């Protein structure tokens, strides 16, 4: 199995960065794209298109699967001028988000660009997303109420 600059297997690393790109704010991706010099040329293998996917859940988290509902998703596939192919699926209807995520996915597969994109885009996005999750967890923990039952004297026998 091949390894990337971070020392993990390529499929696991790609899964990780695709998740980061899919959850990223469009503004952050646009800002990173604006700083690229030169901007990589690309062609669409699949232009951004929006559709629905069925979301499944499990009863009680581990039980039998059931269809929870539909979710809007936008997908895109691009080929860079260098030949690398990138794909993206993002929640919602942002065609531009899907396009940029696919471009960055392709760039991260290029050995000459991967370290730079990983260090300057994926690392900061991952840190910002972790901070956002931590903040949300702190806010939720602040509202936690612990209930307990007092034992009455005559019930303690």
Commentary on this structure:
With 157 residues, the chain is α+β, with helices and mostly antiparallel strands. The chain is built from four helices and three strands; from the N terminus they run H-H-E-E-E-H-H. The chain has helices at residues 10-23, 26-34, 95-109, 114-142, and strands spanning 42-58, 65-80, 85-91. A three-stranded antiparallel β-sheet has the order 1-2-3. A hairpin with a 6-residue loop joins strand 1 and strand 2. Helix 3 packs across helix 4. The longest helix has 29 residues, at 114-142. The termini are far apart.
Instruction: Write the element-wise H/E pattern from the N-terminal end onward.
Output: HHEEEHH
Give the percentage of residues in beta strands: 25-35%
Distance between termini? 65 Å
Radius of gyration: 22 Å
Count of beta strands: 3
Low-confidence stretches: 1-8
Largest sheet: 3 strands, antiparallel
Mean pLDDT: 89
Query: Which class best fits the helix and strand makeup?
Result: alpha+beta
Quickly count the helices: 4
> For the largest beta sheet, what order do the strands appear in spatially?
1-2-3
Helix content: 40-55%
What sort of overall outline do the alpha carbons produce when their principal axes are compared? elongated
């Amino acid at each position: 199995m091949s390894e990337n600059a971070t020392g993990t297997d390529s499929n696991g690393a790609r899964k990780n960065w695709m998740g980061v790109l899919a959850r990223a704010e469009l503004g952050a991706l646009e800002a990173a794209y604006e700083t690229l010099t030169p901007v990589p040329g690309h062609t669409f293998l699949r232009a951004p298109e929006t559709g629905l996917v069925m979301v499944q859940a499990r009863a009680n988290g581990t039980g039998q699967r059931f269809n929870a509902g539909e979710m809007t998703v936008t997908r895109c596939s691009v080929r860079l001028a260098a030949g690398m192919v990138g794909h993206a699926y993002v929640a919602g209807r942002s065609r531009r988000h899907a396009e940029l995520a696919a471009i960055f996915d392709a760039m991260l597969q290029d050995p000459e660009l991967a370290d730079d994109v990983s260090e300057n885009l994926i690392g900061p996005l991952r840190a910002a997303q972790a901070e956002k999750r931590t903040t949300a967890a702190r806010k939720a923990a602040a509202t936690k109420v612990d209930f307990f039952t007092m034992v009455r004297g005559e019930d303690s026998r």
